[in-house]
Write a structure and sequence with these properties.
This protein is mainly β. About 5% of the residues lie in helices and about 50% in strands.
């Protein structure tokens, strides 16, 4: 299982798909299996296959850097705006986590 260091905890990474648009969802779980955070946001914005939007504000500050460092995602340099927030668009580098 792939892990990410976030908020001074080693978190397991879980991939899923949002039911509304099929985009990749990235969730982090604490060592005890409880949810830490959902790193992605299910925004309706065109993006390439294999990409998703990362929520980097509020409780997710630092999540993008942690995911990049762990080799989970790669920054594309593109962003999407939804409401007042900007979301970095990333390419998900891992397809399956075991």
């Amino acid at each position: 299982m792939k892990t990410v260091r976030f908020l001074d905890q080693d978190c397991s990474v879980v991939l899923a798909n949002y039911s509304s648009n099929g985009r990749i969802a990235i969730m982090l779980l604490c060592e005890d299996g409880s949810p830490m955070t959902t790193a992605t946001s299910c925004i309706d914005h065109p993006m390439p296959e294999g990409c998703t939007a990362i929520k980097t504000y509020s409780e997710n500050e630092g999540i993008l850097e942690a995911l990049v460092e762990a080799g989970i995602v790669r920054e594309t340099g593109h962003t999407a705006t939804n409401g007042f927030a900007k979301f970095p668009i990333v390419e998900v580098l891992v397809k399956h986590l075991t």
